[in-house]
Design goal:
38% helix; 9 helices; Spore Coat Polysaccharide Biosynthesis Protein SpsA, Chain A; globular; 9 strands; 299 residues; 9-stranded mixed beta sheet; alpha/beta
Length: 299
């Protein structure tokens, strides 16, 4: 068994998943096992895995239901910690790590003498630009810049689950990502817990391609109206996540929700009333939202 497990969550994207698995199995100078979480895909994903990837390095689990990305990560990180992995490398199924991505994360670990809460790779989109959806935050209101990639390691406040390395011992101490979030903000919330002892870092030499369909950030003003249930989760989760940051977290929530409301009014792609009600329904739900943080057995 390797000391590192890559936790990959998938749902109905077997062709993209295949490239992710092959990229992980092809890591050089630092190898990993794969804890593969299938959120009950219906596109032949399970058959592909059973036919092509039943090997000692791949630990396969079918959740039996679509738990969302957040639920899948809760499930997968929990499995990896229970199996005793020292390091857990978290990513989506449309993440394609460069052959030396994990190696450079461990080079950063050496430079930092192990004093880090989480390490994030630089996620590029398929056009070679830094992925808009995965640019890490340096503070509540500021993002890391391309110009900082000239540095080996950049201190950050929040990163995404598109290639994030965490320590198994930290997972056992602080608990799992919040599966009840279902989608969005689970990574930012987890960074808040992970960085209470040591900060997180963006590692410029560790790179992955995030092959998301569109090179955009989530935008309630322009997205399809059929996705409003997801956005209600986003605005609810944001309240829970950012209120942990104190008064500045509350200021961020109010600023963001008011800004997005104004954006819908000025640039909304139809159904403006529904979009605005989604923002503030999510906010109201977030005020009373108290999701349970699950712990590893025995902790």
């Amino acid at each position: 068994m390797n000391k590192t497990a890559a936790v990959v969550v998938t749902y109905n994207r077997k062709d993209i998943l295949k490239k992710c698995i092959d990229s992980l199995l092809g890591q050089k100078n630092a190898t990993c096992d794969i804890v593969l979480i299938n959120n009950a895909s219906t596109d032949g994903t399970e058959e592909m895995i059973l036919n092509e990837y039943m090997m000692p390095e791949v630990k396969y689990f079918n959740t039996g239901a679509n738990l969302g990305g957040a639920g899948g990560f809760e499930y997968g990180v929990g499995k990896a910690a229970e199996l005793g992995y020292e390091y857990i490398w978290i990513m989506d199924d449309d993440t394609w790590p460069a052959p030396d991505a994990l190696y450079h994360l461990f080079e950063a670990d050496k430079k930092l003498d192990g004093k880090w809460g989480f390490l994030s790779s630089v996620a590029y989109w398929t056009d070679g630009n830094v992925c808009k959806a995965n640019r890490p935050k340096k503070s509540l209101f500021t993002f890391a810049k391309d110009s900082e990639l000239s540095k080996d390691i950049v201190k950050i406040k929040m990163g995404s689950f598109v290639s994030m390395l965490v320590k198994g011992e930290d997972v056992k101490n602080i608990g799992l990502p919040i599966g009840d979030y279902f989608i969005w903000t689970d990574d930012y919330e987890y960074c808040g817990r992970l960085s209470k002892k040591h900060p997180g870092y963006w590692v410029s030499e560790s790179t992955v391609t995030h092959a998301m369909k569109n090179h955009t950030k989530a935008n309630i003003a322009s997205d399809d109206i059929s996705r409003m249930n997801r956005y209600e989760c986003l605005f609810r989760n944001d309240v829970h996540c950012y209120r942990q940051q104190g008064i500045m977290g509350w200021f961020y929530i109010w600023f963001k929700d008011l800004y997005m409301t104004l954006k819908v009014i000025l640039k909304g792609n139809g159904n403006k009333k529904k979009r605005i009600s989604t923002i503030w329904n999510g906010y109201r739900k977030g005020l009373k939202y108290r999701p349970k943080i699950k712990k590893i057995a025995g902790k």
